[in-house]
Amino acid sequence: MQVPLIRLQCGVNSYEWGKKGSDSAAARFAAATPSDDLSIQADKPYAELWMGTHPSNPSKDVNTGRTLLDLCSENQLLLSQSVASKYGAKLPFLFKVLSINKALSIQAHPNKKLAEQLHARDPRNYPDDNHKPEMAIAITPFEGLCGFRPLDEIAHFLETVKPLRTLVGEEEAAQFVQAAKQEGGDEAAKKKALQKAFGGLMSSPPEDVDRETANLVALAKSEGESFAAGGVSSTKGAVLAELVTRLHGQFGSDIGIFVLFFLNFVTLQPGEALFLVADDIHAYVSGDIVECMAASDNVVRAGLTPKFKDVSTLVDMLTYNYAPIDQQKMTPTDYPYATLNRAGYSSGSSVLLYDPPIDEFSVVRTLLRGDGAKATFEPLEGPSIIICTSGKGTIAVGPTKHEMQEGYVFFVGSTAELVLESSGGPDDEFITYKAFCEI
Ligand SMILES: NNC(=O)[C@@H](O)[C@H](O)[C@H](O)COP(=O)(O)O
Ligand SMILES: [Zn+2]
To answer: SS3 for 342?
Structure first.
């Protein structure tokens, strides 16, 4: 049976935080595939390119216009029997490109049990019953807030940033600082103290948030690098002062600005990645990323957004894990099931695997440098979606071969032996990201 290689037309969502017009990689990538319902408008934000079968924005076969969801429903072998029997006739993952101009919401994604409850209770705001663990890989330099800081850092900010302490409450702040500074101590009690302090912040009355935001911004502007007593080793005062003024410029008075002091501020260079389990709090701030997640669109939001906020659900659902950011970053490894040809080896090409601790997906990033560099992949017992984010080359499955350029997206059915080859100049880089599920 001919294993299909299907070129996809993918939809792009225009959330407010997206980069505008062709500045947005999501818009450029969507526009790379001709379609009569997309013309990029210069002043419109384009946030997310969706690649997959999620019904909120299903990708289509460019030749027939049929959705990938329909094609997989009709022929489950595209997914492989094992994937289809575990996840049903759809892709277990949703693959995206995000192009971030303004901060995303302070958010977390529910675990499976909570997702079922939220979807049953409020299907409009929680469109499916699935969990949404997610991984982000930086295409350009990326900034994000991700997971709670080590407790001593939060204690430092509660002691040195008066507007923050005022919103949390003097008594609650003092209790937290005492719990945080206890050597060793009961982990559960520390998480409870963190939840109490964070919950106190998030339940601040709007008039207090307005007043203390003005005080915070004034301090950030006047104190500069000595802001927050110079900050902490992971986030210096000057960086915090700039972030406070930037987020205030983007959202005005917003409780989300104060969440900066509770969450790790992380920067990723291209190719670096982070992984978030369900119920981990985060907010992406800037940059272009490839993102892969379990197939869900459930987002619980609590700040930095004009969208529906569900603060009490967020405060109740969080894991209150806290750790230095390096524990959230992912380190890719050489992908063992692909072979580079001589041209690929000699030009320093690479095939890297990003393999998070969940079953729904992994991602392979292939960088082929110079003309004729080639990577041959062993057949997978499962489906893949592959996008080219820069350069040009070809993609082949058996006798079927297509050219690939920036923004081209293909679905690769199960048991395909895939070959990628660069067709650029000696210094050109043909970069693709492939999300896949194999059981
Ligand atoms: N962390 N990234 C994600 O979860 C994306 O896949 C979501 O689609 C975005 O968070 C949605 O962001 P807003 O709700 O518009 O603020
Ligand atoms: Zn998220």
So the answer is: helix
